[in-house]
Amino acid sequence: MTSCEPVRSPRAPQRTAADLGEDGVIALATSAMSADPRIPVGPGDDAAVVTAPDGRIVVSSDALVEGRHFRFDLSTPEHVGRRAIAQNAADIAAMGAVCTAFTVTLGCPADTGADVIAGLAAGTAGGARDAGGAIAGGDVVRTDQVLLAVTVIGDLQGRAPVLMSGARPGDEVAVCGTLGYSAAGLAVLLAGIDGFADLVEIHRCPVPPLAAGPQAARAGATALTDVSDGLLRDARAVAAASGVTIALDGAALVPDQRLLDCAEALGADPHRWVLTGGEDHSLFAAFPPGAVPDRWRIVGQVQAAGDGTAGTVTVDGAAGPERGGWNSFEGTAEQP
C-alpha cells in the first residue's frame, strides 16, 4: 500500500494562488508530472496527444469537491490528489482495461496556499504513476472551494470491455479487494480516536486492485464494476443492468477481525460497513462457474429474475438495507 505522508498545513500557506498568478499555479500544479512515451504531447500545448494502440479508448471522469467529498482537517492535499486518481482508475479497471493517461482540472479560491497546490499535484502525479498512467494535462480555474476534476483514459489491450449488463443465471459473483475498510476508517476519523491507522489510510488513499480488472476480463468475467457506492448498491446496479437477481452469501461477507475490533471501539455495526460502505474501490464481478481467478473470493451467485425482481440483491435470502452506500444527492461531506 502506498503511504500518503502529510504535507505542510493546508491552512498555513506562505504564498497563495493569488500571489502565484495563473501561470504560477499551472507551473506548480505540473511540477510533479513526468514524461511518458504514451503521451507524445503533454502539458503546455492547446491539447494533449495520447497514443491509442488498441484503436479504442476507455474514458471516465469524476470530481472531488471540498466540503462535499473531502475535508482538509481529515485529509492532506496529497491524500485528496491520490484519492481523486484512484477512484477514476478503478472505473477503468472495472471495464477490464488499464490506465494510460489522466487530465486534471484544479479549481481553488484565490487564497489557497501554494503548499495545498503542491500537495494536490504530488498526489495526482504519484497516484497516476501508481495506477500505471501519467498526467497528460488539465486546467486551473478560480472557484469558491477546492475541487479536482479528473478524466482518465484507458486501453483495452485488444479485449472486449466487460460491462455491468452481462451477468447470467448460474454465474458466480466474486470480490477482489477490501470491503468496509474505507467506511471504518472514516468513522475513526469522525470519532477522533487514535488507532486503526491502516483503516484510516485506506479511506484517505484507497488502493484499488487495478490489475484484477484485466485479470477478470481474461478469465471470462461476464459483468464487472467497482465498489464505489457500497456493495449492495453496486451489486444492485449489476443485477438491474443484467436483468437478474444476485444472492449474496452472508458467510462469505463476515467482517474480519480488524473491522470487528474497530466496530467494538466505536460501538458501530461492522456488517453495515461491509454491505453499504463505499470507496474501498474493490472490484465486483460475475464469472461462469469455475472461472473465478486467484485473489478473488466468491460471495454469491447470479439467479434468474422472476416477475418484477430484476435488480434484486439478497443476503442469505433476505433483502439487504434499502438505504446505505454513497448517493451524490444525499449525506454530508466525508460521511458514508
Task: Describe this protein's structure.
The chain has helices at 17-29, 77-93, 114-130, 181-191, 197-204, 212-218, 231-242, 257-266, 270-276; strands spanning 58-65, 98-108, 134-142, 147-155, 172-176, 223-227, 244-248, 282-287, 297-304, 313-315, 318-319. Residues 5-13 and 325-336 have low confidence and may be disordered. Helix 1 packs parallel to helix 3 (114-130), helix 2 packs parallel to helix 3 (114-130) and helix 4 (181-191) crosses helix 5 (197-204). With 336 residues, the chain is of the alpha+beta class.
SS content category: alpha+beta
Strand order of the largest sheet: 6-8-5-9-7-10-11
Mean pLDDT: 90
pLDDT under 50 segments (min length 5)? 5-13, 325-336
Assign an overall shape.
globular
